[in-house]
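Sample A.
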Amino acid sequence: MSAAMDTESTYSGYSHYSGHSKKAHRQGRDRHKSPRSKDSSRSEKSVTIQTPPAELLLGNDASRAEEGQDDNWGETTTAITGTSEHSISQEDIARISKDLEDSVGLDCKRYLGLTVAAVLGLLVFLTPIAFILLPQILWRDDLEPCGTVCEGLFISVAFKLLILLIGTWALFFRQPKADLPRVFVFRALLLVLIFLFVFSYWLFYGVRILDSKDTNYQGIVQYAVSLVDALLFIHYLAIVLLELRQLQPMFTVKVVRSTDGESRYYSLGHLSIQRAALVVLENYYRDFTVYNPALLTASKSLAAKHMAGLKVYNVDGNNTSGQSRAMIAAAARRRDSSHNELYYEEADHERRVRKRRARLVVAVEEAFTHIKRLQAEEQQKAPGEMMDPREAAQAIFPSMARALQKYLRTTRQQQYHSMESILQHLSFCITNNMTPKAFLERYLNPGPTLQYDRDRWFSKQWTLVSEEAVTSGLQDGIVFVLKCLDFSLVVNVKKIPFIKLSEEFIDPKSHKFVLRLQSETSV
């Protein structure tokens, strides 16, 4: 219990530190100096809709505060609570309601397709059985006796239906990975083909067998066997169209994230645009580093500060052309030297990152050394007094919390790591006897999107934008865009060129040579 209390006391400001800034500190200091300004600022507050906490971590003030932050920010920061600076407009509310309506429509479309496929599949499996049982029920006395061949056909039908059932389950009954905007063309064609096929068999069965009450029962059973055989061939066709056709790479796609320009290349086969977009998104969550808008905000603020020039205003209307030219020249010289300031600021930022990284590495190594000492002490105690990994993580976490907190703020990763997630990762490393380097790998290097919680992805619902129909196949030169709320993925499709290989024969004897040595040498 004491370890948990130390954890909370040491890490009490972790969930609120992203909203702190120097501006907030100055406001808190001015508020204590001047009560009158506090009353005036209170009267100017307006009612807005507060955004989720993840949005508050990404404000411009927080990113600006990173540049001038000292090592004692934990003691000097003042938290100002009040009205949120973020608001939501009527257009955003309308867009959210539209997204909800679209999601309801997609759910209805998905369940309708599953219902149609399930009913058709049930009809397919019951049709051969009905072909065999209906004559036995309707005109059993008039049927010819079923011989050995006929009884053997019963076994054939049973095993073929079992094989068809297993193959259908493996190919079609899968958990859907995404909701596509349009139907899958090949899947829809297969459903139509199966329906027409079963309908034609029923039509022939009703006209030639039910109406005439055919007494050749072996022929009826053979007719049911032919239906099962045809269904098996249709299943093979489905495997070729749905699985095998797309395996051979035919296109290379380049995926570029619009905000930071990070790109990846992938090879795809014969796919439609919507299915290619699905493959791109699956690879995006695995290969691309997590999207961090705080880094973009910081770079934009630096560029804006260094590219800002001096503005000259002629208030009195006097002739101040000489003074104006001098100020414009000073502004030009300032812009010329701005790259030096940017260079030194970036170098200072890298220095602070390296320094805080070194402090974090040392703190984590000391904490893991402490936990090994605790484990050695616990082994000498009774088995009932052993400390579980969660308690051990809470015991050593306060010693590294401050260094980890400062490093995450400096590298602007604080919005992706909560206190609970860090404790879970620490207990996981302790349970599996992992080293400090293995524990720090998640925090020293930004990982892929799948490494973080779903509520911190910033990209859950996507919109496909394409000039071509999304059901059409990939072609050379096609460009489509996958948009989400904060950024977009631009996908450029290029066809793999036709490669012509030629063979050149090399005679093995051409590599042979003779070395002649003279036995006599001149003296």
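Sample B, a different protein:
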Amino acid sequence: MPNRRFADGEVVMGRWPGSVLYYEVQVTSYDDVSHLYTVKYKDGTELALKESDIRSQSSFKHRKSQSSSSSPSRRSTSRSRSRSPGRPAKGRRRSSSQSREHKDDKKKTIQETNLALLVLVFSFNQKPSENNTRRYNGEPDSTERNETSCVILEQKLKPDLEIERVLEQYSLHPRKEEKKKEERHSEKKFFETIKTIEKASSKTKELEFGGRIGTFMLIFFLPATVLYLLLMCKQDDPSLMNFPLPLPALESLWEARVFGVFLLWFFLQALFYLLPIGKVVEGLPLSNGRKLQYRINGFYAFILTAAAIGALLYFQFELHYLYDHFMQFAVSAAAFSMALSIFLYIRSLKAPEEELAPGGNSGYFVYDFFTGHELNPRIGSFDLKYFCELRPGLIGWVVINLAMLLAEMKIHNQSMPSLSMILVNSFQLLYVVDALWNEEAILTTMDITHDGFGFMLAFGDLVWVPFVYSLQAFYLVGHPTAVSWPVAAAIIILNCIGYYIFRSANSQKNNFRRNPADPKLAYLKFIPTATGKGLLVTGWWGFVRHPNYLGDIIMALAWSLPCGFNHILPYFYVIYFICLLVHREARDEHHCKQKYGVAWERYCQRVPYRIFPYIY
């Protein structure tokens, strides 16, 4: 095992990660397994550094003294070489002036030679009349003069070629200009090297979701899962043991009119998004320091959509058309999300390096296509990822739930919807309205700041959210379940607890990220990190590491309980949600460990439980 070079408490120079700058640090500990030194900077930041990134202070002082003493010694050496020991000072001054005179004479000689050459060339270009005049004055004719001048030209050219060689070998440009050129060249080369290093370092090295093979399978597995769940809900006995399911005819899964209705819905929401209503806010800084602007008008879009749906119902439009063609709508949404993903990947190939997603820049087509190659694809000011995140799918989820409620009333000849259907619609309506009301909070999530916009988010936003999240309402249409008022009251209390944890935890995090110095947040304690951000260790984030996920899971359970316990199918959402959040939690853990280093380890020691207190 190699010996450690620096002792605990020793003051050394540590390189700041990602730069070439060294700062004074103090060694606090050494890990024998990873061979990393934990050092503390003057501002209190603690980082783990390799031994190669640490230098002793004496080496920096030695280099400084050596560089400062080198120039005088060179000057004294050059002076000692240029003078004779026995020659007096005046003689030395005279010799220097003589050398300057010699240089001036040499320049004059060069100028005279070049002038003579120019005169000679000019004489060749004289008109014939001038040549005849010269001949009558006893001068040689043009033929004789050409032969003579060739010899003269050859004699004149020889010293001139020598001069050119001398000029090439010894540049007559001032030394300062030469130095500036060299500095500009070296600076250009330095920045080119930095760009090359940044381009290589920006590549995604750690692949998620099973890498290339896993993402390739998910592209087919996710649509198949949606179709399987919807087909199961249509069965009289939606048991998981009923396998294989009777598959419908392929032509029954597609209808051009349904696809047209879906496109109309998508572009209607795009129109609402473009309306100049609502405030404009800035997102978090990107890797290049730039902040994108977003218009916060999701709640207004929801109100306009509600008004449009109300108008349709007033004019006797049968909204349960959604229930009758639910499979066709799911297939249409899946086809549109695939086409959108292909468009997004093609346009991302022309995007600059700094606009690519940190998690979707692996260089592998399938992986980048699935996770999203470009971070924030925009058409002008229209942000495609931000629009799809909340508008068509999330608001569509509420519209689908309402269609299921009306279908239940029509199919079972009810004047009022069942209590179970009311609970499911109310709980999920609250969740959607909360997301739209707190729309600005989504700008701090990993979906916006880290993940690219590819098949994963396009399919998730446009297909998975509206058609899988509405699974309980779709199930209740074909399998009505009676719920007593005491049971309903208990389910309502459970949902309120989950919602309170979810909303208060997210509010704490978002407010702290926006303005850590807010006096209203003075009661919150945090661990400072090298990135300048803080890790909350009080409030909900001191209870578990991901309290918002805990609230999500409790609410998901409350949404499924009104469906009873006859089948496990309505609880698919709970199982899926737990698996999704555990995966996201592991993702967040890995990302935060890389980002915050030692500070994240200290946070994990303070807050040991991830999602479930005293369990996980």
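Observation for Sample B: The CA atoms of residues 553 and 575 lie 9 Å apart.
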